[in-house]
From TrEMBL:
GO terms for molecular function: branched-chain-amino-acid transaminase activity. Its EC number is 2.6.1.42. PROSITE patterns: AA_TRANSFER_CLASS_4 (PS00770). One of its GO terms (cellular component) is mitochondrion. GO terms for biological process: L-leucine biosynthetic process; L-valine biosynthetic process. It catalyses: L-valine + 2-oxoglutarate = 3-methyl-2-oxobutanoate + L-glutamate; L-isoleucine + 2-oxoglutarate = (S)-3-methyl-2-oxopentanoate + L-glutamate; L-leucine + 2-oxoglutarate = 4-methyl-2-oxopentanoate + L-glutamate. NCBIfam families: PRK13357.1. This is Branched-chain-amino-acid aminotransferase. The lineage of its organism: Eukaryota, Metazoa, Chordata, Craniata, Vertebrata.
Amino acid sequence: MQTNSWYHIHTALYHTCFPLSSSVIWDYDASNLPHKNRQDKGPPGRGAFKRIVQLSPTLKTKPDVSSFGVDFTDHMLTIEWSSTEGWKAPLIKPFGNLSLHPACSSLHYAIQVFEGLKVYRGDDNKLRLFRPMLNMNRMASSAKKACLPAFDQPEFLECIRRLVEIDQDWVPHSYNASLYIRPTFISTEQSLGVKKPCRALLYVIMCLAGTYFNTNAASLWADPKYIRAWKGGTGDCKMGGNYGCSLFALDEAVDNGCQQVLWLYGDDHQITEAGTMNVFLFWINEDGEEELATPPLDGIILPGVTRQSILDLTRNWGEFKVSERYLTMSQLCSALKQQRVKEMFGSGTACMICPIRHIAYNGQVRNLSNIYKEEI
Ligand SMILES: Cc1ncc(COP(=O)(O)O)c(C=O)c1O
């Protein structure tokens, strides 16, 4: 792999990864938009299933893509569940506030999970979701750990597809921007008892997402006093609580002049994740082999869709060893000293690939910037 391989992987993910897997590619037909308040028959083979679509009477002016997660589309999807009645009909309706009971247990005990995926507009003007079934699977396993009910994954994905179809004009005509989809699953249990919810709400909102991808590689702050996740915990799930409780460490990282936390684990300071990204090290390993390595999915790592795609893609290239293995700070520091580190980068839906330039650890700043060329 050449210098700036993170960039090659980024480009490869963007251009070639879609056909790698069960990636779903949908082509949209604008003439097929639903009429106001019509009932949609579900996908073939699921005759009893009905989606209700209430189109917004007024459409918002679409702003230029600026920051992430502030400009939401015209519609949203909601699906209510209760232990007595099961799942209600999915409802696509104008984007708006939720009305929640003040004792709702997602507000008090963070009984909540979510997902994040994107829809891109290609040069051919077709819209593509990136490996969405991986997000559906991950959401189902997160929900299981939060004691939220099981849902029909292909059916839910079909509802998302319909929502995207309705708001398709929001998908930017740009290589650098996309539409971010945020499926969210909350307990709507109306009591203060800490218990398995009897009521829940699955909903989906969508917003504009600009590029996170730029030449400014990330600087990380690694301090073992904070732990993102632990064995037997929920670090392998996308639960809101995992993120809220990481803010304090992030604040300290920023106070120390860094952009993100490099999360360490255990007495040997294992490298686990960088901010909300999986982490990869491309290096000459202890045995002199060229290796792309990332920590294994042992319960404390979020099984990233981008992580899996990088593993699939680079294994398919067959150019170097690709491993899921433990990496410690002392291994990284020796490799840096011996100039065996070729690149280090984070991966995630938000940025795809984000190169790492500095790591502040044990009172020293370890500089990785000499291994990157400035031009992209
Ligand atoms: C903690 C954490 N790790 C890794 C990732 C990357 O996952 P993905 O590639 O599915 O976006 C995310 C992104 O949501 C995350 O929150």
